[in-house]
């Protein structure tokens, strides 16, 4: 279930290290915790940090991706581990500052631990990864066009580079699971009871 990036949604869980969304689509983040331990957690397991030496669905960062970089294979493996099914991602851009469809504050984000971004292109953004030190942080930015990032206590390093990704939702990953409420179950039960009694009366006549 994806709760992030929906129009009109506001989630305020900054104290626990989860994205803070405003209806405008701004994102603030102060994260902690690795992706290990978030297996099959779905979108609730994001954002999280992938560190060199950790293995996700048979993919080991630092061995299968040099220096723990956020390669397409690495990001898909981590998302497959966290979401349960890996999305098919496409690398969109890796800007280090203003240019093209991206605008950053400050203008250059290299070495920065916090920065703002705005995207003016036509593609639908799906995920954002921030490389720093020996790992990368991965954010679910489904459909957002702007945000604020703070990795000051996430990676222990400033930003080395950032990558924006587009891609398809994993099968079933974007569908909300509908759980019947107790009142609905009660009404269904009563309806079945009434139908059963009517059927008995007709049979008795």
Description:
This protein is α+β, with helices and mostly antiparallel strands and 205 residues long. The chain is 17% helix and 26% strand. It is elongated, with a radius of gyration of 22 Å. It starts with 10 loop residues before the first strand and ends with a helix. Mean pLDDT is 75; it is low at 1-31 and 172-180.
Keywords:
3-stranded antiparallel β-sheet; 205 residues; single chain; 13 strands; alpha+beta; disordered N terminus; 17% helix
Distance between the termini: 52 Å
| Helical percentage | 10-25%
- Stretches where pLDDT is under 50 for at least 5 consecutive residues are 1-31, 172-180
Secondary-structure element sequence?
Answer: EEEEEEHEEEEEEEH
DSSP helical segment count: 2
Structural domains: how many:
1
Instruction: Let me know the number of strands.
Output: 13
From the helix content, strand content and strand pairing, which structural class follows?
A: alpha+beta
Label the overall shape: elongated
- What is the topology, as strand order, of the major beta sheet? 4-11-10-13-7
**Binned strand content:** 25-35%
- Largest pleated sheet: 5 strands, antiparallel
> Over the alpha carbons, how many angstroms does the gyration radius reach?
22 Å
- Mean pLDDT reading: 75
């Amino acid at each position: 279930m994806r709760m992030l990036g929906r129009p009109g949604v506001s989630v305020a869980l900054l104290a626990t290290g989860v994205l803070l969304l405003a209806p405008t689509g701004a994102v603030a983040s102060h994260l902690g915790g690795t992706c290990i331990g978030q297996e099959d957690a779905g979108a609730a397991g994001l954002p999280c940090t992938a560190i060199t030496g950790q293995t996700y669905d048979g993919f080991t960062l630092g061995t299968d991706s040099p220096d723990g970089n956020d390669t397409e294979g690495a990001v898909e493996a981590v998302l497959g581990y966290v979401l349960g099914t890996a999305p098919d991602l496409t690398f969109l851009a890796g800007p280090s500052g203003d240019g093209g469809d991206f605008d950053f504050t400050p203008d250059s984000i290299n070495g920065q631990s916090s920065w703002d971004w705005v995207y003016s292109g036509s593609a639908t953004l799906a995920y954002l990864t921030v490389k720093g030190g020996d790992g990368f942080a991965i954010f679910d930015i489904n459909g957002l066009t702007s945000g604020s990032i703070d990795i000051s206590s996430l990676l222990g390093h400033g930003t080395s580079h950032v990558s924006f990704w587009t891609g398809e939702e994993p099968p079933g990953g974007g569908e909300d699971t509908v759980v019947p409420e107790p009142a609905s179950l009660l009404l269904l039960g009563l309806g079945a009871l009434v139908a059963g009694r009517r059927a008995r009366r007709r049979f008795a006549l």
